[in-house]
Design brief:
- The structure is a homodimer of 184-residue chains.
- Chain A is of the alpha+beta class.
- Chain A has helices at 8-15, 24-46, 57-67, 109-116, 142-155, 166-172, and strands at 70-71, 80-81, 87-94, 100-102, 119-126, 129-136, 163-165, 174-177.
- Chain A is built from six helices and eight strands.
- A six-stranded mixed sheet of chain A has the order 1-2-3-5-6-8, sandwiched between helices. A two-stranded antiparallel ribbon of chain A has the order 4-7.
- In chain A, a hairpin with a 5-residue loop joins strand 2 and strand 3.
Amino acid sequence: MSRLPTTGLIVAAKKRRTPLFKFHVDKSQLDDLFPHLRELQALAVRHGIRDIFQDNGGKYLQLALVTGLKLLASREGNDAVDETGREYELKTLNVDVVTSFTTHHHLNPTILKKYRRVDWVFAIYRGIELEAVYYMPVELLEPFFAKWEAKWLQDHKDINNPKIPMKFVLEHGIKVFPANEAAG
Amino acid sequence: MSRLPTTGLIVAAKKRRTPLFKFHVDKSQLDDLFPHLRELQALAVRHGIRDIFQDNGGKYLQLALVTGLKLLASREGNDAVDETGREYELKTLNVDVVTSFTTHHHLNPTILKKYRRVDWVFAIYRGIELEAVYYMPVELLEPFFAKWEAKWLQDHKDINNPKIPMKFVLEHGIKVFPANEAAG
């Protein structure tokens, strides 16, 4: 084992102790925050979110609470359902990082069929802060679907994350959050 | 627009108010938690994590603080570096949900080259709680790499998330967290 590096990580492994040699102030801050994270995770579980830190879990929780939608766990179905049983596809983006909504790592006719079945809800975050939520009737998205479908039929290859520009959503969607208080 | 559903979401959109009609208790709990989440996100940013709710951001923060590793932002390079400049590939799993570590949505020779360059660190979570961290010298992973490489060379198609079983990591890795206090 002579090629083992002489870092905190491996020295710690050999001495069988935790290699906490640099970040003790930050670690103690995290320890103080952790009870609140446990509370958030418990709240998330009540709304069908298994893990706040994955797949935008913490953001979907906020989105559910703001829109009143119930999140659906199944990978095959759509993402959320309202009190009338109508389902929705949900998409989020972080406007600090990107200006398009991504869709699916392996987009194909099965996914497109699912996408065409329901209206969509788009949530725009800045970092972890929810800035706006837009409702989009599905027929307005058909030009995107048609383009992706044509590409798939030509290449017979799953498409990696085709995108819907935020600009399109801002122009054609109906804003449901935040409320326009002036229009009361 | 007569096909618009008569749900809280759309009624709210038309009346231009927030459709907060069901989850006001949970929403108020989330509002109380939010200052702590902002604090966590600020801490995460100091460790190179742009978003705690995506790609296991909150978990990587905890992993960095526990191992003393510095996280690397670049998508092309490896995931973390120690104080000697040695880089690592990091993988996490939630043992409540899965029993294998996933690797890459589009595994190909470029990714394999990156994987073979450095030692690996595996973190096992139960929900959001970090249960254990294992160090793995990269040569022990070569049987997996060789198998994936052979498959790619045969099919000439990116591999979707080939896995490394947790069982293999528990058997062959070196535990670096939690400390084994008895062994002092």
